[in-house]
Amino acid sequence: MSLTFHWFLPTSGDSRGLVVGGHGTPMSGDRPASLHYLNQVAAAAETNGFEGVLTPTGSWCEDAWLTTAMLAGTTDRLKFLVALRPGLMSPTLAAQMAGTFQRHSDGRLLINVVTGGEPADQRAYGDFADKQTRYARTGEFLHVVKSLWESQEPFSFTGEHYRVENALLSNRPNPVPPVFFGGSSAPAGPVAARYADTYLTWGEPVLAASRKLEWIRGLAVDHGRKLDYGLRIHVISRDTSEEAWGVADKLLAGIDPADIARVQASLASSESEGQRRMVELHGGSLDRLEIAPNLWAGVGLVRGGAGTALVGSHEEVAERLVEYSKVGINHFVLSGYPHLEEAYWFGEGVLPILERKGLWQHPNRRPYIPAVTPFAGASSS
What we know:
By secondary structure, the chain is α/β, with parallel strands linked by helices. It has 13 helices and 13 strands. The chain has a single domain, classed as Luciferase-like domain (TIM Barrel, Alpha-Beta Barrel), CATH 3.20.20.30. An 8-stranded parallel β-barrel has the order 1-2-3-4-7-8-9-13, surrounded by 8 helices. α7 links the parallel β8 and β9. It is globular. The N and C termini lie far apart (55 Å).
């Protein structure tokens, strides 16, 4: 299996400590998410061989579409995993925007569909639908979007949540953007099985992740489909295990207990099953944060969403990634604090190990052509 690695754009800001908040909670880092800084992170990702970068969506971060459209002009091969929320835009408009992005970026768009899960944030955007309704709406949304990407004739659809009549894209996206989709609750499964190209899960222990993938695989078979699978997780990778855990300890020491209480109280109102599973891994306690070998739940104390990190030497982190790959995961969406420096720690430390194992190949590496220098004593005649 060939593995694909993606990095993360910290569009709410970055820091040498854990950036507090997200997923319905105010969030900002002491390194502002300026276009200048995000360009540096994107360049680091491209240099180190990450295929794409995930850009989040929500009131706590910059808009994903606008930010990545700007960054597309300053990168060469890097792809952009752009998060969007069904319910906040017309599916016809979303399909059209994807086509425009593909043309102007030379086909470097990936789509991350976020159904939603934090009631306060959803309502801030004017979306008062309940969880079951949101997933049903997402299914219709993706049905319209994918139909428009494929249809050469006017397309009409009447559903419970969307109705379009004689919709047609003048320029369909080429290539069609792959759709990444995550969700741990019962209504998420059928949507993923029918419409996702890559199913994403947050960083749980390997056995728990494997059981979730088996659930989605079974549903996908019912639709005659075969999906790719991805893991969203943080990394702290260093030359030695002691050094990596020292970094984790420093991050933990920098957390204000008041921030833990505030974020955990906010996350308690989440309707996300995945978020509930993340909280259960640490239970709000600082005493049991290594929940599996090299799997640390400290990030989730103060950050919503993906709340675990792989911590260890480059060799240990590589070993854990191989274990996840053995249960079928071939996409890894990674991040670390700060995102600029950590992209190099992982890119220069872990990826070469996986390359030597034949599991990864740098997608952007250009062939080395040595310069030909005439012998210093050679005559010009």
